[in-house]
Write a structure and sequence with these properties.
Length: about 230
């Protein structure tokens, strides 16, 4: 099945480069291009793209505002947003994930990494570059209100194993790595992740990361035992 991609960036040359790159990859197709956030939202609704490569800085409605509109629209529930920006700024990481983005990459990403990222988010997984993950952790570390009892109660719906799995997701581990850590099959690890997402009403793994830090399940800078 072909993955339909929408490009949203106000720079024509950048869109042209991404268009050539995406269209040259097997199973990927650019179906539309937007020069600002407003157009991105309109085209998301009309073109039914699977993945939107969304620049943060655009005139008028920026990429973060457009992402919020897209992820809040129930009719676009299957659309994944991959944020692209020149600077992996902590504020952008935090706001992009809160807005519902499924991934966050710098524009300097290598071509093969970008194509891989599109496939990853189209498949329902989250993708954050290591620098973006560090930024997200630092942002949560700076928030003294995280881990309140009210937030922690949100995790009551999870089994002990699901809590453990969510904690590992928040540390950036893939399903295969979680399986190795917990001595499970990759399919079982994925099942635990999916069940946790359903129970916590998380759009994808990126949202699990937000929940894990917001509830205090995982603390920034703290690594779980090997």
């Amino acid at each position: 099945m072909t993955i339909r991609v929408l490009l949203a960036d106000d720079q024509t040359l950048i869109r042209s480069g991404f268009r050539v790159l995406v269209n040259s990859a097997p199973g990927l197709e650019v179906v539309a291009e937007a020069a600002n956030g407003r157009q991105a939202v309109e085209l998301a609704r009309s073109e039914r793209a699977d993945v939107i490569l969304m620049d943060v800085r655009m005139p008028g409605t920026d990429g973060l505002a457009a992402t919020r509109q897209i992820t809040a629209d129930d009719s676009l529930a299957g659309v994944k947003v991959l944020i692209l920006t020149t600077f992996e700024v902590d504020e952008y990481v935090f706001e992009a994930i809160r807005a519902g983005a499924s991934g966050f990459l710098g524009k300097s990403v290598e071509p093969d990494e970008l194509i891989s990222a599109i496939r990853v988010v189209a498949g329902g997984d989250a993708l954050l570059s290591p620098k973006a993950v560090r930024g997200l952790m630092n942002r949560f570390l700076a928030q003294p209100e995280i881990g309140t009892s009210t937030d922690a109660e949100e995790l009551a719906v999870l089994t002990d194993r699901e809590r453990e799995v969510v904690g590992l997701v928040a540390l950036g581990l893939s399903n295969d790595e979680i399986a190795d850590r917990l001595v499970l099959s990759p399919l079982t690890a994925k099942t635990h992740v999916n069940r946790a997402m359903v129970k916590l009403d998380a759009r994808d793994r990126a949202q699990l990361v937000v929940i894990a830090y917001r509830t205090g399940l995982v603390r920034a800078g703290v690594q779980q035992p090997q």
